[in-house]
Design a protein that fits this description.
Layout: E1 25-28, E2 31-34, H1 35-56, H2 65-85, H3 94-113, H4 133-155, H5 171-206, H6 212-242, H7 245-251
Antiparallel strand pairs: 1-2
Membrane topology: Multi-pass membrane protein
Function: Key component of the proton channel; it plays a direct role in the translocation of protons across the membrane.
GO cellular component, one term: proton-transporting ATP synthase complex
């Protein structure tokens, strides 16, 4: 895993670099793509698309089976977005928040449940997409773009007044906050998922029979919580970007 980008070109000078183990890359011209991340990400995306198609293939007025599960998930995501963004503004953001939650949730669980290490690669090994810093940084940057877009679409250039509210002294702190939000989102998710995979791998190596099972179950629970935290914070940032100063005072 390499910071700061997923794509490596001859024109980029990384400010910092973090390597954990070996990695499998695709070289396409001057671009160097992180192959193992793309492979597992595509698997998760295809699985989500297939589930959506199967759930919506034969819709019933009284849902059952997979349709019932998917409708419950949709209601859960809709309630999350409504709580964080607001009842008047949440509807256009349900697909984005839902996509974030489902992709992270399935990625985390795929890393915990699928024996990726049985698939041999020329270099490196497959793992959960979210255990790679490139994936979590990309998701965090998408979230940043989303709440900037939300703020500009709601307030126009008046969005910049947030940076000097309630006093111009807040300007450097608000700018710093825009950098820390994606950093905290990406490193929280990356650190927790990578740590969980490392703990399970060490336990399997040391005591390969029953002891790793509780850690694996705990890892599934932690993975679900991390998906919920990421989606909730993303929705909260979007709601905050669209919030008017008068509404903030009302909430306070």
């Amino acid at each position: 895993m390499t910071i700061p980008t997923l794509l490596h070109t001859n024109f980029l000078l990384p400010l910092a670099e973090l390597e954990v183990g070996e990695h499998f890359y695709w070289q396409i011209g001057s671009l160097r793509l992180h192959g193992q991340v793309f492979l597992t990400s595509w698997f998760v995306i295809i699985a989500l698309v297939l589930l959506s198609v199967l759930a919506g293939r034969n819709l019933q007025r009284v849902p059952s089976g997979l349709q019932n599960v998917m409708e419950y998930v949709l209601d859960f995501i809709r309630d999350l977005a409504k709580t964080q963004i607001g009842e008047k503004e949440y509807r256009p953001w349900v697909p984005f928040i839902g996509t974030l939650f489902l992709f992270i949730f399935f990625s985390n669980w795929a890393g915990a449940l699928i024996p990726w290490k049985l698939i041999q690669l020329p270099e490196g090994e497959l793992a959960a997409p979210t255990s790679d810093i490139n994936t979590t940084v990309a998701l965090a940057l998408l979230t940043s773009l989303a709440y900037f877009y939300a703020g500009f679409s709601r307030k126009g250039l008046g969005y910049f007044s947030n940076y000097i509210h309630p006093t111009p002294i807040m300007l450097p702190f608000k700018i710093l906050e825009d950098f820390t939000k994606p950093l905290s989102l990406s490193f929280r998710l990356f650190g927790n998922i990578l740590a969980d995979e490392l703990v399970v791998a060490v336990l399997v190596l040391l005591v390969p029979i029953f002891v790793p099972l509780p850690a694996m179950v705990l890892g599934l629970f932690t993975s679900a919580i991390q998906a919920l935290i990421f989606a909730t914070l993303a929705a909260a940032y979007i709601g905050e970007a669209m919030e008017e100063h008068g509404e903030e005072a009302h909430h306070d």
